[in-house]
Structures are given as structure tokens and as C-alpha cells.
Amino acid sequence: MTSPTALYDLIHFTTATTGTGTLTVGSAVAPFMTPASYGSPFNSGTTAVWYSIIDVAGGNSETGAGTYTASGTTLSRTPIISTNSNSAISLSGSARVCFTALASSLVIQGGALGTPLSGTLTNCTLPASALTGTTLASGVTASSLTSVGTLTGLTVSGVTSITGATSSELAANLIATHSDNYGIANIYNNAGSYVSYGIQPSGGIYIRASANVASGSVAFSASHNTGNNGLLQILGNGNATFYGAVTVPGGTSPLLTTSSAVTSGAGSSAGTLLNAPAAGNPTKWIPFNDNGITRYIPAW
Questions:
Q1: Enclosing H/E stretch for 20
Q2: What is the SS3 string spanning 77-136?
């Protein structure tokens, strides 16, 4: 049975059905309507509804969720609460039925939201609840999300920041649209420093640190807490420009590694080395990895 997603007013009718099964709609109880006289959505197909049955002659009552079928004008019954130990009551043939809201189908102001169905929430202020698989429309602002629990599979638009959330509460698939067409998200640490990253309108990559981390460092790591094992790649035909000194670790590992062999600039002239920075042999031969071949640069 499909859970009802809407309420319908002024539908109240009799039924001559007996027993505990599907009932057939009778005539309207004046001045109310039958589903057929109500119109859409009851004039074709099936519609999930909340219902209540009062059977005075049988001394029983029942509320539940049912499915109204336009062809045959019938209502299937799935009881939630009844005077028959919450099972379907046996109808006497003179019961009255109405489509009405059940207490379990309502969200009381200030109460728990419960588990929302799939759909779009627009201009809503949400209590502390878990929103799973729900899309928030552009009318939802950051101030509208207060003390929200776990956010899973969430797409947001127009939210400038989300505070108070741990890394486990923010899924990787966070889409944030900046007002100047930059796709930007901010990542904060516990000290309040942050890094903005995203996509420029032209498609370029945007990374910027906050002022209070300007004197710090930028680390590229292969995985979390793996030390200096990171890799910075400039793909395509891009160039890297550094406005400051470049520091690399020492040791026996090559300082530079090429992805293809360096083109040799050898010629026929005799080489001379008369302007070394110091007399004598080089004090170090610095290795670099030329596509798998270790070559050396002299240094004094």
C-alpha cells in the first residue's frame, strides 16, 4: 500500500458493505461529498487516503490508510487503530466513512519532523532532524538550518555557510553556488582558519586561504596523516608560478623527477668551466630522475 501524501476535505459517505474486506462507496452523507463528486484526483486511477469508519449499528470504529479505486468506487482498508484490537472491524452494512487526517499523519508545530518523504522543501525552518535523500530548494537559507543532525545526499543552493557540522556530517557531494557564479565551498578548522576552494566561471580551479593562515603552509598529501607523501600535479599544458621560495626535502632521493626523458642540448663545442662559484671540484652532485635515469647537477 502507498502511504497517503495529501488530505481531502468534505468527503463523507455511507457503505452497504459487510465484513472486513474492501468496501464499496455508497451515497454522500449530506451535505458532504463522495470521492466521485469531489473530482480530481478521484476521477481516475487509484489514490492513497487516510480514512475513518464509524459503524454505530455494529458498535465499532476504525482508522487507517487505504487506496481508493475510481473504477468500481472501492476503498481498500489497512487499519492503524480500531476497536477490534487494531484489526479490520466487521462492517454491519450501515457504516459511515470519511477521508480525514490521522494523528500519526500530522506534524505538530514545535514537534519532531519525523522521516520526510522524497520531495522538495521550500522556505522551511527545520527542527533538529535527520534529512536523508531530501532536496532543499533555493528558498532555504543558512539561517533556516539550525541544529540539524545528519545530512546525507543533500544538495543545497543559496546557502553561504554551514557551521557546527563535523566532517562526518558533511557528505563529499556538497554543491555550493556562490553569488558571482563561482562554485565555492569553505573548509574550517577548529581555530577558525579556512580554505576556499571551487570552480571559477571559466572552469578553472580556485583555491584561497584565509588571512590568518597566510603565513602557514599548503600541503598536498596522498591520504590523511601520511606525512610528506603528497603529490601536486599540474595537468595539461599548465605552468606553476611560485611567488616565493620553493622548499623540497633533502636526503638521497632525487629532487626532481621527469615524466619523459630530458632533451639533450649537446653540441660540438669544447666545454669550459672557468667561472665556478668556488675553486676546486663541485662539493655536491645533485641527483635528479630523468625518466628513470639518475643524472647529476654539479654544485659548489
A1: none
A2: CEEEEECCCCCCCCEECCEEEEECCCHHHCCCCCCCCCCCCCCEECCCCECCCCEECCEE
pLDDT at position 227 is: 47
Mean pLDDT of 232-254: 68
pTM of model > 0.70: no
Q: What is the reported pLDDT for 212?
A: 54
User: What is the amino acid identity at position 216?
Assistant: G
Peptide linkage before 41 cis (omega within 30 of 0): yes
The rounded distance, in Å, linking the Cα atoms of 244 and 260 is: 27
Tell me the sheet residues that pair with 298: 285
Within a 13 Å sphere around the CA of 76, how many CA atoms are in the beta-carbon half? Answer: 13
C-alpha cell at 285: 652532485
C-alpha cell at 295: 643524472
Sign of CA dihedral 35, 41, 42, 46: negative
CA 90 to chain CA centroid, nearest Å:
47
C-alpha grid cell, residue 206: 580556485
Strand-pair category, 257-258 with 284-290: parallel
Closest listed residue to residue 249, CA positions, set 268, 230, 262: 230
Q: Which pLDDT score, from 0 to 100, does residue 89 have?
A: 97
Amino acid in position 281:
N
274, three cell numbers: 672557468
First to last CA, the chain: 83
* pLDDT bucket at 267, cuts 50 / 70 / 90: confident
User: What does the pLDDT read at residue 17?
Assistant: 97
As a whole number, mean pLDDT of residues 209-232 equals 50
